[in-house]
Amino acid sequence: DQQVKQNSPSLSVQEGRISILNCDYTNSMFDYFLWYKKYPAEGPTFLISISSIKDKNEDGRFTVFLNKSAKHLSLHIVPSQPGDSAVYFCAASSNTNAGKSTFGDGTTLTVKP
Amino acid sequence: DAGVIQSPRHEVTEMGQEVTLRCKPISGHDYLFWYRQTMMRGLELLIYFNNNVPIDDSGMPEDRFSAKMPNASFSTLKIQPSEPRDSAVYFCASSFSGVYGYTFGSGTRLTVV
């Protein structure tokens, strides 16, 4: 039972364009969502998060959108840069199980110059 | 702060041997997590601690795996005896309060031959 799903294993976009990474979840108890970025041979690094009381959070080129009714969130990167090429993980947690995040399988983003 | 420090970075061992992975979390963080990443299962949570106390070890694959956190600045993950299917990258992460973003270490790549 995979509670956090990233259905696209990979995504390729041109430099300067928008990258949209998607994530779906099934557990309605999740109330905090995070995105991590991972380069090869390194651990994931926290990128941006959103609480369930919001539907949008923005940090520079990165924006996360949350649609609670659809149990869907997305990460938008605008404009995309070659240095954004990495694996992106979506994660979710709930206050009832504070401390424990459930991760998706990741999406490999390639930004072509 | 040097971040979450894991050692060793790489470990190659023979089947049946004991393996010990080590982690130093960020000072002041009260949550510590052990994850395993494989191609087949993605990023899976093995166990996590809150204030040095194990909270959830339901992800530990079997009795061959054990984890300890004797103090706030050190944790170990031990596999005894090791098997080839244990080959993976093992990540340690720490967090303040648990809900917010984790800081991951660089991981230990374990190969059991």
Low-confidence runs of chain A (pLDDT<50, min 5 residues)? none
Count all strands of chain A and give the number.
11
| Chain-averaged pLDDT of chain B | 93
Oligomerization status of the protein chains: heterodimer
Biggest interface: chains and residue counts?
A-B, 23 and 25 residues
Percent range of helical residues of chain A: under 10%
Structural class by sheet pairing and helices of chain B: mainly beta
Number of helices of chain A: 0
SSE order of chain A, as H and E?
EEEEEEEEEEE
Low-confidence stretches of chain B: none
Question: How can the largest sheet of chain A be summarized?
Answer: 6 strands, mixed
**Biggest β-sheet strands, sense, barrel of chain B:** 7 strands, mixed
Strand content of the residues of chain A, in percent? over 45%
Please tell me the overall pLDDT of chain A.
Answer: 93
Walkthrough of the structure:
The complex is a heterodimer of chains A (113) and B (113). With 113 residues, chain A is an all-beta fold. In chain A, 0% of the residues lie in helices and 53% in strands. In chain A, strands 2, 4, 5, 9, 10 and 11 form a 6-stranded mixed sheet that branches. The mean pLDDT of chain B is 93. With 113 residues, chain B is an all-beta fold. Chain B is built from no helices and 11 strands. Chain B has strands spanning 5-7, 10-13, 19-24, 31-38, 42-50, 53-56, 65-71, 74-79, 88-95, 103-104, 108-112. The A-B interface holds A 32, 34, 36, 41-46, 49, 89, 93, 95, 97-106 and B 4, 31, 35, 42-45, 48, 50, 55-56, 91, 93, 95, 97-107.
